[in-house]
Design brief:
Structural class: alpha+beta
Radius of gyration: 32 Å
Number of strands: 15
CATH architecture of one domain: 2-Layer Sandwich
Strand order of the largest sheet: 7-15-12-8-11-10-9
Shape: extended
CATH superfamily of one domain: hypothetical protein PF0899 domain
Length: about 450
């Protein structure tokens, strides 16, 4: 094969397949057209002879109309295939045609995940720029992966085992298909308020880092003839968020896996998400950053870079309405209308009983049962079981524009290792995911400390 010739499993094979389908369509159209002409001639001859019965004439008329409609549809379909072939050939890199966009995206993500699992350095932009996924290979892997979940790899067919091997090796676990990974992340998103509120980023390396402008550039006024003085240059810092390994071990009986008609991907995704969601959610709030994400409650009190200001409630071991007002207006102006209260459900219970100076409850619940937009001082409220309850010295309430405040970093790829031996007759699914998280803006969050 010439170096400039793409393998038949790529765009060339797909174009040839489409051309064959187009040829089949043309053959069908030609045959239908010949039959149409034959019936039309028969209709004309019968009418000219003036001796045909009405039933035969009506049958010929109906057949002609039906065949004409069918010809029109097939001609339109054939033209679309021609257009698809032209677009596919002209598109940079020869993107495959007539394939589901979701499957195309999943195949790309799967390739990235597998490469990331094998290479700690991740996948660079240059490598992915001209990459074209093999959709058929990905779909085959997905089927083999489901069989692997239901049966040990020693029991699946040799060709499936070979296909499965592209998703890393059996000892380190196989890469989860993007469809299942998406389900896991979606369920974690639904169960964890921090994941819903914060910024999220997916990376293929073991950390993300960027420069941070900690200061502002100096400016000044100048006259028409005044010589300008040099202004101050802002200081730059570097922020780095590393990813850490999190795991879950959901279990099922071998009989369930072999005999059940359940959707294995959905079942396993739900089980993994339930465990990982609570685990990572706690780290985003109180994690110490050692082998896990760093939580926003772990920073020292202060207004300098790397510190988060804590506003005292004003009453010993109790919430006050004034404390909510003080906390809200300790935020900078640009975050006053974008903040969200975060607290434990028991703290929220206490907040619901608070009144302002006019005797009005500061909590404004929605009149619609399904509406989550209940407000305290005009800002929405979310609950987190990890937030401390009201007690002397506890950090009971956080107010932040969380998209500005916190970054969650997911490393591409979730892997599953099947273990049918440790807990017989149960099968364990040792599932690993790498995630990091940290505060990225210390000015967009304030925390209420309950007075001692």
């Amino acid at each position: 094969m010439d170096d400039n010739t793409m393998p038949e499993s790529g765009i060339e094979a797909q174009v040839l397949t489409e051309i064959k389908r187009f040829g089949d369509d043309i053959t069908g159209i030609k045959k239908n057209h010949e039959e149409l002409n034959k019936n039309y001639k028969s209709l004309v001859d019968t009418m000219e002879a003036g001796k045909g019965d009405l039933t035969k004439l009506e049958k010929l008329k109906t057949d002609i109309i039906t065949r004409q409609e069918d010809l029109d549809k097939k001609a339109a379909a054939a033209q679309k295939r021609l257009d698809d072939i032209e677009v596919a050939i002209k598109r940079p890199g020869g993107v495959s045609l007539n394939i589901n966009e979701e499957a195309f995206k999943a195949a790309v993500e799967h390739y990235q995940s597998c490469k990331s699992a094998k290479n700690s350095g991740g996948v660079n932009w240059k490598e992915m720029k001209d990459f074209q996924p093999n959709i058929e290979e990905y779909n085959t892997y997905r089927k083999a992966f489901e069989n692997y979940v239901r049966m040990d790899e020693k029991m699946i067919a040799p060709e499936e085992y070979k296909t499965l091997s592209v998703g890393v090796d059996p000892h380190g676990g196989y890469t989860v298909t993007p469809f299942m990974a998406s389900q896991i992340l979606t369920r974690m998103y639904e169960s964890d308020p921090i994941r819903q509120l914060a910024q999220k980023m997916s990376i293929s390396t073991d950390a993300v880092e960027w420069l941070v402008d900690r200061d502002q550039a100096s400016v000044g006024w100048e006259g028409e003839t005044t010589v300008s003085n040099e202004t101050g240059t802002p200081d730059l810092g570097k922020k780095r968020i590393a990813v850490h390994q999190m795991f879950a071990k959901p279990t099922a009986t071998q009989q369930l896996l072999e005999d059940s008609a359940i959707n294995i991907e959905s079942w396993l995704a739900n089980k993994v998400a339930e465990r990982m969601g609570r685990f990572e959610g706690a780290s985003f709030v109180t994690g110490d950053g050692i082998g896990k994400p760093r939580g926003f409650l772990t920073y020292a009190n202060g207004t300098a870079w790397g510190q988060i200001e804590q506003v005292t409630s004003g009453a010993a071991a109790a919430l006050t309405a004034d404390a909510f007002v003080n906390l809200k207006y300790s935020l900078r102006e640009e975050f006053l209308n974008t903040g969200t209260w975060l607290m434990n459900r028991l703290t929220l219970r206490d907040a619901m009983l608070l009144k302002n100076g006019q005797g009005d409850y500061i909590w404004k619940p929605s009149m619609i049962a399904s509406d989550p937009s209940s407000l305290i001082l005009g800002l929405p409220v979310r609950m987190s079981t990890t937030m401390p309850i009201v007690a002397a010295g506890s950090l009971a309430v956080a107010l932040a524009d969380f998209k500005e405040t916190y970054m969650i970093v997911d490393r591409l790829g979730i892997t599953i290792q099947r273990d049918p031996y440790t807990k017989k007759p149960f099968v364990e699914f040792y599932t690993r995911k790498r995630v990091g998280g940290d505060v990225i803006n210390y000015d967009s969050i304030k925390i209420m400390r309950i007075a001692v």
